[in-house]
Amino acid sequence: MIRLRGHHLLCLLGYRGMGYSDEFCINMTAIYERLRVQPETEIVMIEGPDDICGHYPKDQHAHCEGASVYTRDARVLDKLGMELGKPVPWSQVTAKVADHVEPGDIQVICASCPWEPYGVCKEGVDIIRRGESLPPAPSRSGGPAAAAER
């Protein structure tokens, strides 16, 4: 079972191999690929740092406990009608996204996120709404600065 916080449901849809460090990307890729390949994998929604946050670089300012992150989590859970502590298969999460989230919602829900301008989460929502499968994660890593260099 994978423990996730609310906004990471949308982050996972937009994950394209970019992250805060190599260790973070290795973990995020493993979670992303497991959910992509095994959509019946159960996840449980939690409040606060989750299995993704656990690999945030220790030498960087952690935003995992920031008020804006908790607000984003609550917005996502509310939008999807999901409850904390209740295990659900990933396929049910993507079905809820397809039914309740528009690509343009990302700009509102995730306005304070540094990844939002890249459009990858919006793209991920669009892919799910069209009933398509998410693409395999690329092997390239790096943060917003590295992504801007591409």
Write the layout of secondary structure elements.
Layout: E1 2-4, H1 8-14, H2 22-37, E2 42-45, H3 67-80, E3 88-89, H4 90-100, H5 105-109, H6 120-129, H7 144-149
Parallel strand pairs: 1-2
Antiparallel strand pairs: 2-3
Properties at a glance:
single chain, 150 residues, mainly alpha, globular, disordered C terminus
Provide structural commentary.
46% of the residues lie in helices and 6% in strands. It has 150 residues and is mainly alpha-helical. It has one domain (2-131). The protein has a three-stranded mixed sheet. Helix 1 crosses helix 6 (120-129) and helix 4 (90-100) crosses helix 6. The longest helix has 16 residues, at 22-37.
Secondary-structure-based class equals: mainly alpha
- Taken together, the total number of domains comes to 1
- What is the molecular shape? globular
Strand order of the largest sheet: 1-2-3
Order of helices and strands: EHHEHEHHHH
| Radius of gyration over all CA atoms, rounded | 14 Å
- Beta fraction: 5-15%
Instruction: Please state the average pLDDT score.
Output: 89
The helix count comes to 7
In short:
With 150 residues, the protein is mainly alpha-helical. It contains seven helices and three strands; from the N terminus they run βααβαβαααα.
